[in-house]
Design brief:
Helix content is 36%, strand content 27%. It has 14 helices and 19 strands. A hairpin with a 7-residue loop joins β16 and β17. The longest helix has 18 residues. The chain binds L-homoserine. L-homoserine binds next to α7.
């Protein structure tokens, strides 16, 4: 018998209880042991829910119970999740978490403690919800030097951009609709400003690099400036606009960023729509591989958490080696990241030397027209460093939109 304690009975916590209850026979068979939920920790009471019988309000009951082997941390946020996780590991309990803030900030330290205590710190659900990506990076793609990892890592923003693309709707209208349907949070900042995707690409890049990538060091832009007019141009270009979290290795240096990109019909992530997530990985010997599925939601996320519980049971008394050292990865400067840019600006008319100015600043560009858009000029630049682009675009006023191109 393996006893587990679930910290937090919110969406994911109740999902973990549901998954273990629904699939208990097959889960126990795969784990090779009987998994029993001994405690659920939450500040609230849940009268009428069978969970009330095992509900506790004091974490110390779990910490001091020597019969609890595995702690499932699904509270979210850094504190008290960090303190509870650290104390659990130091007490010889494995921890499985879906908490990307915790993993992005303290992953390296918590992995080192788990190794020292000969237990496990597992976090499959922290990136891509139900999509297996952490375990594949750690145990399947080990023959490769990973040179690129690019993902649609946030379901909320992918839903919003997909609706804007398909319905021609404005950002604010789709966001409100997504909030009404419960897809987007009432405070959508972490999603729409790209912060959630940033933490996820920081975790993935740390694993690929084998050392710490601080999310504060990753240039991050959200989707709030994307308009329905941008999508009209995307359609003309047979492209779409997606929020990408991206890390590319060039000359042994990782260049990471989160931003909306226009991607073309041949891009591996073009078919990832709605609330789905997709993660594209390029290895130097494997070539391309794609991971696709539900990146959020109660049961998909709980499925990934419970898969970690099964792994922790299978590896009781053994630490699963995960290379993520605390020393900082030397990230390339954002200013040196090379991109192509789609630009929309006010058309100042034939009397102005605007096209000549554009040529002088950016060299030869590709002009783009969208059928019912008037009084503006839109073009795509050649590849150039972020700093060079920033310097040149600063010489223009009335710039409506800048979106990077990945096709
Ligand atoms: N808010 C996140 C998303 C939840 O929309 O993808 C999963 O981390």
């Amino acid at each position: 018998m393996v006893n587990i304690a679930v910290l937090g009975y919110g969406t994911v916590g109740s999902g973990v209880v549901e998954v273990i209850n629904t699939n208990h026979d097959s889960i126990n068979k795969k784990a090779g042991d009987d998994i029993k939920i001994k405690y659920v920790l939450d500040l609230r009471d849940f009268e009428g829910d069978p969970v009330q019988e095992i509900l506790v309000h004091d974490f110390n009951i779990i910490l001091e119970d020597k019969d609890v082997d595995i702690v499932v941390e699904v509270m979210g946020g850094v504190e008290p999740a960090y303190t509870f996780t650290k104390q659990s590991l130091l007490a010889g309990k494995s921890v499985c978490t879906s908490n990307k803030e915790l993993v992005a900030k303290h992953g390296a330290e918590l992995l080192a403690i788990a190794k020292k205590e000969n237990v496990n710190f597992l976090f499959e659900a922290s990136v891509g919800g139900g999509i297996p990506i952490i375990r594949p990076l750690n145990s399947s793609l080990t023959a490769d030097e990973i040179t690129e990892i690019t993902g649609i890592l946030n379901g909320t923003t992918n839903y919003i951009l997909t609706e804007m693309s398909e319905k021609g709707a404005a950002f604010e209208d789709v966001l409100k609709d997504a909030q009404d349907k419960g897809y987007a949070e009432r405070n959508p900042e972490a999603d729409v400003e790209g912060y959630d995707a940033c933490r996820k690409i920081a975790i993935l890049t740390s694993l690929v690099a084998g050392s710490q990538v601080d999310y504060e060091d990753i240039h991050t832009e959200g989707i709030t400036k994307i308009t329905d007019v941008d999508f009209k141009y995307a359609k003309e270009l047979n492209a779409s606009i997606k929020l990408l979290g991206m890390s590319k290795k060039v000359d042994n240096t990782f260049y990471s960023m989160v931003a909306p990109f226009m991607i073309g019909k041949d891009h591996p992530l073009i078919g990832v729509n709605g609330v789905f997530n997709g993660i594209f990985v390029h290895g130097n010997v494997l070539d391309d591989v794609m991971f696709y599925g539900r990146g959020a939601g109660k049961l998909p996320t709980a499925s990934a958490v419970v898969s970690d519980v099964v792994d922790a049971v299978k590896h009781k008394g053994t630490n699963i080696m995960t290379i993520w050292e605390e020393r900082k990865t030397n990230l390339g400067l954002f200013e040196e990241f090379e991109n192509r840019f789609f630009v929309r600006m006010k058309d100042k008319g034939l009397d102005d030397n605007q096209m000549l100015d554009i040529k002088n600043e950016f060299g030869d560009v590709l002009y783009v027209k969208a059928s019912d858009v008037k009084e503006e000029l839109a073009f795509i630049t050649g590849p150039m460093n972020e700093s060079v682009f920033a310097e040149h675009i600063a010489n223009f006023d009335d710039v409506y939109s800048v979106i990077r191109i990945d096709f």
